[in-house]
Amino acid sequence: MKKINWFISVLLTIGLMLTLSGCGGTSPSSEPDKFTYAMSGLYKPFNYKDSGQLVGFDVEIGAEIAKRMGMEANPVTNPWETIIQGLKAGKYDAIIGSMAINEDRQKQVDFSRPYYRSGAQIFVSVDNDMISKANDMKDKKIGVVKASTFRDVALEYTSDDKVIGYDSDVIALKDLTTGRIDAVITDQMVGFGAMKDGLAIKDVGEPLWVDEMAIPVQKGNTELLNKINAALDEMIKDGTYDSISNKWFGRSILGE
Q: Are residues 109 and 156 in the same domain?
């Protein structure tokens, strides 16, 4: 009887060990020394891939935050249209991907302090003289990033079938030169960066609005949010933020 009980005990112990090993995953909570932050990877110059590596303003801001929290930076990509769902599911700790604060998103996640500000801008091809202000986009084909706030404003000027969704702002801007679309609504900095790189487009009119970009974390994760805010405040105070911003834009884009 003692031998049987001993054998059962061994089996139960092995079973428990297998169960515990099976519970291991790659979620941020199982990697406490890593700060995993997500972005689309398609938003040059904020976040994009160069020779297979994620680079850009957002990537470097995240790396500096991780450093100040005593953690290893682990930037990852996720499709923009499901990026909040991925955060809520625990796939990563935060999103550092140029996400604008808005009421709907605030219901789902908690945002850090703004880490830059920029306006929504209309861009057209350099030879387009038909669009010089927002109202000129009426009934025109407008390119926007899928699941972005830019889509909502585009629908104020044209019909749903004429709002063309793209995975990347840069691809949308390039399509202006092909004539497939008449205008693109995107972040000022993205369009200005494309113009700096030689794309034959131009900005028209005043910014449609000014967005505050911030870093979302899971709802209720106050500890991480406080650490991110403290890191950002330190970076701004000691000049590190300006150094990163000047590298990518030639000026500070904090907007304060």
A: no
φ/ψ region of 174 (left if φ > 0, alpha if ψ in -120 to 50, else beta) reads alpha
Same domain? 160 vs 75? no
Q: Report H helices in the chain.
A: 2-22, 57-68, 83-88, 103-106, 149-154, 169-176, 188-196, 222-238, 240-249
* Same-domain pairing of 74 and 128: no
The reply to whether 158 and 42 lie within a common domain is no
Query: Rounded distance, CA 106 to CA 254, Å?
Result: 21
Are residue 171 and residue 140 in the same domain, yes or no?
yes
Both tokens assigned to 225: 């949010």
pTM of the entire structure? 0.71
In a domain, 1, yes or no: no
Q: Is 68 exposed, middle or buried (0-12, 13-18, 19+ CB in 10 A)?
A: middle
128/205 same-domain check: yes
Of 3, 4, 83, nearest in space to 36 by CA = 83
User: What's the domain count of the chain?
Assistant: 2
| pLDDT-derived band at 249, boundaries 50, 70, 90 | confident
* Angstrom distance (rounded) from CA 152 to CA 100: 14
How confident is the model over 195-209, as pLDDT tens digits?
888 999 999 998 998
For residue 110, the enclosing domain spans 28-115+215-249
Beta pairing partners, 117: 212
Is 34 in a helix, a strand, or coil? Answer: strand
Is 225 inside any structural domain? Answer: yes
Cα–Cα distance measured from residue 193 to residue 158, given in angstroms and rounded to the nearest whole number:
26
Classified as helix, coil or strand, 189 is helix
Identify the burial level of 15 via C-beta atoms within 10 angstroms of its C-beta, where 0-12 means exposed, 13-18 middle and 19 or more buried.
exposed
